[in-house]
From TrEMBL:
Organism of this sequence: Phytoactinopolyspora alkaliphila
Signal peptide: none
A Pfam family of this chain: HTH_18
PROSITE patterns: HTH_ARAC_FAMILY_1 (PS00041), HTH_ARAC_FAMILY_2 (PS01124)
Gene3D superfamilies attached to this UniProt entry: 3.40.50.880, Homeodomain-like
Keyword DNA-binding: yes
Domain HTH araC/xylS-type: 221-319
Recorded superkingdom: Bacteria
Membrane spanning residue stretches: none
One GO MF term attached to the UniProt entry: DNA-binding transcription factor activity
PANTHER family attached to this UniProt entry: ARAC-FAMILY TRANSCRIPTIONAL REGULATOR, HTH-TYPE TRANSCRIPTIONAL REGULATOR RV1931C
Protein name as it appears in the record: Helix-turn-helix domain-containing protein
CDD domains from the UniProt entry: GATase1_AraC_1 (cd03137)
Length: 330
């Protein structure tokens, strides 16, 4: 498990949306969490000019020029100048050069929203699957035909290069990075502090219908908490609907509207999250973890781990060895 340095590219002029998407990685990586991991990430703000950038009610100062991207473990770019998107102008040469140098030096490259245009201009997305905010994906695909643009997902993890859709999908990707670096347990605790879902899969659709009244959304919370406490039991949509005192069809619609995923996929995601936590925090066998997480057999756990997370449970455990594990054998 490791943190390392995160270099965040900041705009020459800050708009309100820029502040929103800058604040996401700044909050996740820039606020020390000594009880979760010590040291936490080292955050660098890097801009073309080392000066204050102001928007009504806000001021921002970059400590480093763009040369500060080189040598960072992770580089995040969440913006490009407005005239790149609106006027079709090229991404500034100094930004492109700095991004290429950082990548060549071994940095993990990350874009949020229209930051994908900067990575694409640098050639870092050629031949790769990538995403951006759905309002800009058609333009991204037309402008950079070598990029495999997917407008239907929250984020894409292609190993050393990751891209996300806009707005809160950037938070999903940042928490995904914490999960990759420090494991599911720490990522879940951080998400709880931020009062957001612990894990939304990158393949989840961008187009989430949030028109369900808040009272309906809130009515699902006790049911989902009830299900999380019983993941080791066989659970069906009928069971969850019965607990919510609605028909299976109504429950399916409400959960999909609130989370953007189906009840069965939601259950699978919760079971994988529990399996990750048990792999990190206990010495239980893979067979026992499969049973406790509701995935049944070790083979079934391995199958879903490889498909959803990309590595085997054993490799995951080796990647996230805790300081001490609690033996929970029963």
């Amino acid at each position: 498990m490791s943190t390392g340095s995160v270099a965040l590219v900041v705009p020459d002029e800050v708009g309100v949306l820029d502040m929103y998407e800058l604040s996401i990685p700044a909050t996740v990586f820039g606020m020390p969490q000594p009880d979760l991991a010590d040291p936490w990430y080292e955050l660098r703000l890097c801009g073309a000019e080392q000066r204050s950038r102001a928007v009504p009610g806000f001021a921002l100062r970059s400590q480093h020029g763009l040369e500060g991207l080189v040598g960072a473990d992770t580089v995040i770019v969440s913006w490009v100048p407005d005239d790149v998107i609106e006027g079709g102008r090229p991404v500034p040469t100094d930004m492109v050069t700095a991004l290429r140098r950082a990548h060549d030096a071994g940095a993990r490259m990350v874009s949020l929203c229209v930051g994908a245009f900067a990575l694409a201009e640098a050639g870092l997305l050629d031949g790769r699957r990538a995403t951006a905010h759905w309002m800009h994906t058609a333009q991204l695909a037309e402008r950079y035909p070598k990029v495999q643009v997917d407008d239907s997902v929250l984020y894409v993890d292609d190993g050393d290069v990751l891209t996300s859709a806009g707005m809160t999908a950037g938070l999903d990707l940042c928490l995904h990075l914490v999960r990759r670096d420090l494991g599911a347990g720490i990522a879940n605790q951080l998400a709880r502090r931020l009062v957001v879902p612990a894990h939304r899969q990158g393949g989840q659709a961008q187009f989430i219908d949030l028109s369900v009244p808040a009272t309906d959304d809130q009515s699902l919370v006790p049911v989902l908490d009830w299900a999380r406490a019983r993941l080791d039991e066989p659970l069906t949509i009928d069971d969850l609907a019965r607990r919510a005192a609605v028909s299976p069809r109504t429950f399916y619609r409400r959960l999909q509207s609130a989370t953007g995923t189906t009840p069965l996929q939601w259950l699978l995601n919760q079971r994988l999250t529990k399996a990750q936590t048990l792999l990190e925090s206990t010495d239980l066998s893979v067979e026992r973890i499969a049973a406790l997480s509701g995935l049944g057999t070790a083979n079934n756990l391995r199958h879903h781990f490889l498909k959803q997370i990309g590595i085997s449970p054993s490799d995951y455990r080796r990647a996230f060895p805790p300081a001490s594990r609690v033996d929970e054998r029963r």
